[in-house]
Amino acid sequence: MSLTLKPAPAAASGTPAAAAPAASRAAQLLRGTPAGVWIAAALLLFLVLAAVVPFLFLRQDPFEIDPANAFQAPNPAHLFGTDQNGRDVFSRVISGAGQSLLLGLAATAIGLILGGALGITAGVAGRRVDSLICRFVEILFAFPGLLLALIVIAVSGTGVVTAAIAVGIGSAPGYARMLRTQTLQVVASPYVETALALGRSRPHILWHTIVPNVARPLFVLVTLGIGQAIVWASSLSFLGLGAQPPAAEWGAMLADGRNYLQVAWWIAAFPGVFITLAALTTTVVGHHLQRRLEAEA
Predict the structure, then answer these.
(1) Smallest Cα–Cα separation from 94: which of 73, 76, 108, 80?
(2) Are 175 and 115 in contact (CB under 8 A)?
(3) Does this model's pTM top 0.70?
(4) pLDDT tens for residues 97-111?
(5) Distance between CA 126 and CA 222 in Å, rounded?
(6) Which is deepest, 124, 130, 229, 287, by most CB within 10 Å?
(7) 89 touches 62 (CB < 8 A)
(8) What's the gap between Cα 275 and its chain centre?
(9) DSSP code of residue 7
């Protein structure tokens, strides 16, 4: 994914004349947004609210065991049914949104920090360092991201924290490649040459010119990356390498319910649906933001 970057625009003056174009752009943005993007954004907002304020949606304790109500199909009392221990699946799915999204955010942040350090360094440090970093990243690209995460877990052990670190490392090569491309574009831009001509030091140019402009598309990268990180982290939990039962985490719940598909399909189905929703909504919103950013460039 490659985006042409421009210097950040000057702050608006705050006068009515300056506010009018801003209001016009906002109205144009609202009118030009497809209905599918609005639906994805609404679903994503629901997932975020479920993660941040789950008590707004919880009907029962997600960890309360009630063997007398085990394997109940979806009904008004239990919207998503109950699992093999009589726990309310809806409450567990809502409760799991926090851990699943937190895992996705943490893994994305780790991947972005590691990949950003490699990519920006490669873009500004000269050909020799750039060549070394590119070769290192190409070696990492020889392994699929999820396989790289599995290798990290094999070395470091299982657990939620290890899973987040592993997924972050697995996604770092992709961020490194994209941010290197952005950095090279910024370094070759006229305003960096102007800063050099004015006698600005290289550290000053790096932190005040290059990094702010490279950071411009990061929100898009993060939005796209979170969905992928959630799927990878859920996959690790499904394999028993991330969150462990009885944790209310979507991947762990999916693994917990796979043994009961023939008698209680809902135990695994609803966590799987929410994993899919998280991936689809972040992808749709991220691609829309990317198109908007490219149109404004």
Answers:
(1) 80
(2) yes
(3) yes
(4) 998 999 999 999 999
(5) 27
(6) 229
(7) no
(8) 12
(9) P
